């Protein structure tokens, strides 16, 4: 497994509210987490860090206790996300400045050539296989609902004024229902996790080209390109190759 990651402030923000975790190569649990926080004061930064660390500790503390079948691993991810949601929600209730803080969350646990994924918000996970890039997650956003309804096109969604309005986020309500999925992760496949600071700047085609052209430097190159195009948000990329 080859993994590269990069998180950057961008050109327009004072604080990086993105946070990520990648497990070291020698660790038995192959776990990758990415969160993009939101909220006034420094709530976004706190929410993304709390989400990432809560999910990480929950999975690491419980992975050895579960059966390693598909249902049990997916349930572990769901439980870890629900636990993180509770931690953030309770923290926000305790401190008035953190009221309404929340975060997106991408969780990817790789086991037996499969990616077990949990997803909330509008950060994304893509898989590159051979000559194709495919978005595995579906944005929990207002414009995504409009696209699904056929009200607007994908192209119109790119510049919609309510583009960043989330329909679902972690930590904003007492209960949360994450999307859960299992996808194959075969030899030479690449998984790319990113915050919307990347996808608001670059098309899927541009992302694909940069990853396959220079994989080793792709996380740095993607962040640099997003900044060249404006860097209006924090930018975080985690890229995993099954070599």
Summarize the structure.
With 243 residues, the chain is of the alpha+beta class. Helix content is 34%, strand content 27%.
Helix and strand topology:
Blueprint: E1 2-8, E2 18-22, E3 30-38, H1 43-62, H2 70-94, E4 102-103, E5 105-111, E6 114-120, E7 124-129, E8 132-135, H3 142-149, H4 154-158, E9 179-184, E10 190-194, H5 196-199, H6 204-213, H7 218-228, E11 235-241
Antiparallel strand pairs: 1-11, 2-3, 3-4, 3-5, 5-6, 6-9, 7-8, 7-10, 10-11
Helix pairs in contact: 1-2, 6-7
Structural commentary:
This protein has helices spanning 43-62, 70-94, 142-149, 154-158, 196-199, 204-213, 218-228, and strands at 2-8, 18-22, 30-38, 102-103, 105-111, 114-120, 124-129, 132-135, 179-184, 190-194, 235-241. The chain has one domain: Phosphatase 2c, domain 1. The protein has 243 residues and is α+β, with helices and mostly antiparallel strands. The model has no long low-confidence stretch (mean pLDDT 95). The termini are close together. The strands form two sheets. Strands 2, 3, 4, 5, 6 and 9 form a six-stranded antiparallel β-sheet that branches. Helix content is 34%, strand content 27%. α6 (204-213) packs antiparallel against α7 (218-228). The relative contact order is 0.21. The radius of gyration is 17 Å and the shape is globular.
The total count of strands amounts to 11
CATH-derived topology: Phosphatase 2c, domain 1
Question: Architecture, CATH level 2?
Answer: 4-Layer Sandwich
- Which structural class do you get from the secondary structure elements? alpha+beta
CATH class: Alpha Beta
**Order of H and E elements:** EEEHHEEEEEHHEEHHHE
Task: Report the sheet-strand fraction.
Answer: 25-35%
Radius of gyration: 17 Å
Q: How does the overall form come out from the CA principal axes?
A: globular
Question: What is the domain tally?
Answer: 1
What is the assigned CATH homologous superfamily?
A: PPM-type phosphatase domain
Distance between the termini: 5 Å
The overall pLDDT, averaged over residues, is 95
| Uncertain parts | none
Largest sheet: 6 strands, antiparallel
Number of helices: 7
């Amino acid at each position: 497994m080859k993994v590269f990651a990069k998180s950057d402030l961008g050109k327009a923000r004072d604080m990086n509210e993105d946070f990520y975790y990648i497990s070291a190569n020698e660790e038995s649990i192959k776990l990758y987490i990415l969160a993009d926080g939101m909220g006034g004061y420094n709530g976004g930064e706190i929410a993304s860090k709390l989400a990432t660390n809560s999910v990480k500790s929950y999975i690491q503390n419980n992975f050895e206790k579960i059966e390693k079948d598909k249902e049990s691993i997916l349930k572990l991810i769901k439980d870890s996300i629900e636990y993180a949601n509770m931690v953030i929600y309770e923290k926000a209730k305790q401190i008035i400045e953190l009221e309404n803080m929340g975060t997106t969350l991408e969780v990817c646990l790789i086991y037996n050539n499969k990616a077990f994924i949990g997803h909330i918000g509008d950060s994304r996970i893509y898989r590159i296989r051979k000559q194709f890039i495919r978005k595995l997650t579906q944005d929990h956003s207002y414009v995504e609902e409009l696209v699904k309804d056929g009200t607007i096109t994908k192209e119109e969604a790119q510049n919609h004024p309510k583009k960043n309005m989330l329909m679902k986020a972690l930590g904003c309500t007492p209960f949360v229902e994450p999307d859960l999925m299992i996808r194959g992760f075969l030899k030479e496949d690449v998984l790319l996790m990113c915050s919307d600071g990347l996808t608001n700047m670059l098309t899927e085609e541009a992302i694909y080209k940069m990853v396959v052209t220079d994989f080793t430097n792709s996380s740095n190159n993607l962040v640099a390109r997003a900044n060249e195009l404006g860097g209006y948000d924090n930018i975080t990329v985690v890229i995993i190759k099954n070599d």
